[in-house]
Amino acid sequence: MDNLKKKREVLMNHYVKPVHLGLVDNSQLYTKRLQSDSCADELTLQVDVRNGVFQSLRFEGSACVIATSSIDLWCDFLIGKSLATAQSLLNEYLSMIYKGTIPQDNLSELMIFENLHHQKGRWKCATLGAEGINDFINHAK
Q1: Overall number of domains in the chain
Q2: What residues contact residue 83 under an 8 Å CB cut-off, 6+ apart?
Q3: CA atoms in the 13 A half-sphere facing the CB of 123
Q4: Are 7 and 66 in contact (CB under 8 A)?
Q5: How many angstroms separate the CA atoms of 15 and 7, rounded?
Q6: From 38, 64, 95, 107, which residue has the greatest number of CB atoms within 10 Å?
């Protein structure tokens, strides 16, 4: 995704009209509060996994453009994927953010964050949701 205008459009669409915003009333689902230690980003993640496959991921809360867009993109991207596949994709994404490593697998629209490794102050924003999903996977093992 090389086109800067397209990247901004994807980013803003997922911030202004997040597809996976709003939790469902189901106490059986995994729910985790995610809070940045460096800013006011605060989200709640809700995950539904059955037979080792993500059925739905939802979130609510208040966060910046990058944090909101990235968690919404992750929610969309992981539906239908196994926990093992998700773990691999998350590892590649986190390596992309922290080290600038170009992923081997296709991270689809999450590639809009490929240059954030240059902006250390935005790492927490880009990884808040991903780290929450990663915690869920580690909890599910």
Answers
A1: 1
A2: 49, 52, 53, 54, 137, 140, 141
A3: 13
A4: no
A5: 12
A6: 107
**pLDDT per position as a tens digit, 74-104:** 999 999 999 999 999 999 999 999 999 988 8
Instruction: Output the pLDDT for position 66.
Output: 96
Q: Which residue stretches of the chain have pLDDT < 70?
A: 1-2
Domain that holds residue 42: 4-140
HEC string of the chain equals CCCHHHHHHHHHHHHHCCCCECCCCCCCCEEEEEECCCCCCEEEEEEEEECCEEEEEEEEEECCHHHHHHHHHHHHHHCCCEHHHHHHHHHHHHHHHHHCCCCCCCCHHHHHHCCHHHCHHHHHHHHHHHHHHHHHHHHHC
Q: What pairs with residue 32 in β-bridges?
A: 45
Query: What confidence score (pLDDT) does residue 99 get?
Result: 96
Strand order in the sheet with 53-62: 30-35, 42-50, 53-62
Amino acid letter for position 78: L
CATH code for the domain of 112: 3.90.1010.10
Cut 0.90: pTM above it: yes
